[in-house]
Amino acid sequence: MIALLASGLVSQEMLAGAAKPTCRENPHQRICKTPTPSPSTTPPSTFPTSPPTSPTTPPTSSTSTPPTTPPPTTPLPTTPPTVNPSPVKTCTNGDVIPEGAGLSYFEGSGGSLNEYFVHNNNWNDTAGGSTTVTACNYDNWFLVSNTPNHSDLSVQTYPNVHRDYNNAPLSSIQSARFAANSPRCTGCIYNVAFDIWLGSGFTHELMIWTENFGQRPAGSQIGTTTIAGQTYQVWRSGSGDGGILTYVATPSLLYGTMPLNLFWADVRTRGWTPTTTWQVDFGVEIVDTNATAQRINFTDFYINDTTVAAVAAQSQELSKTKKAKMKAFKRLFDTVRYPG
């Protein structure tokens, strides 16, 4: 697992906001076209939850047009969730990623598989705040944001780590590990969330809020559901086959493994028909930090993708076959060179 900047495979231009502008059609994507898939292998962990204390009623970021949650009309009061410790990691001397830029990190032997992209995605940024991301790896990074209060309560930025896919079948993506530690600061409004685009465009946005602090999702609450033993409020913006579906964990989930395959099944019961995805993100939608510098740590992320795992296994098998053929050729060559 290596940062491409260190290896020279990523130029300094990637760190310049002007060189990697935010795609205005899709605020969460670094370029305005369908991305390429990236592989994944390791199995995920279990699914712990944080201790009880319900978060408040729950906007989201990358929603409709532009893919971002419309601002709520009134802020909701918030009760800080009780915190369980997330995986212990420290990030020192990491790559500093300015607003609008991002860096790729790879997993796998020699950093050859599974591209993840850490993105300082200040796609809205109308309130005049600032956010800096420092990344040691795709599963070990943090941000410091100072975002002032503003009357429209719109999401200002969505720093995140994500994987791009070329319309991968949902059936190939089973789950994702995650962990985040947020400040629960007085006067702050934000939500830590998965943001997943289904289908080939921007018509179906699935959000899973693992921790909510004073935020309200787009649309209205249409009920609750239990997935893998965890209760979620279900909010919907739009109707029929499209719009935004937001699942708000109650109580909050600070780390664990999100059973994404069960969410694929649940959205189908609500009339959604897409069977593919082109991007899976995990990050934090920040409305404001009450004009104070606040740090949020992300200490785990990994997508369990069976299709990619199969590709990796096939690649390893081909490598073994190639090595066996080379050995056979060498034996034949030695026989010719040194007969008898």
Short structural description:
The protein contains three helices and 16 strands.
Could you walk me through the main structural features you see in this protein, from its secondary elements to its overall organization?
By secondary structure, the protein is mainly β. It has a single domain, classed as Glycoside hydrolase family 11/12, catalytic domain (Jelly Rolls). 14% of the residues lie in helices and 36% in strands. The protein contains three helices and 16 strands. The protein has helices at 4-7, 260-269, 306-337, and strands spanning 2-3, 95-97, 102-107, 113-119, 130-137, 140-146, 160-169, 173-181, 189-198, 204-213, 220-227, 230-237, 243-249, 255-258, 276-288, 294-305. The strands form two sheets. Strands 1-3-4-7-15-9-10-13-12-11 form a ten-stranded mixed sheet. It is globular, with a radius of gyration of 21 Å. Mean pLDDT is 77; it is low at 1-84 and 333-340.
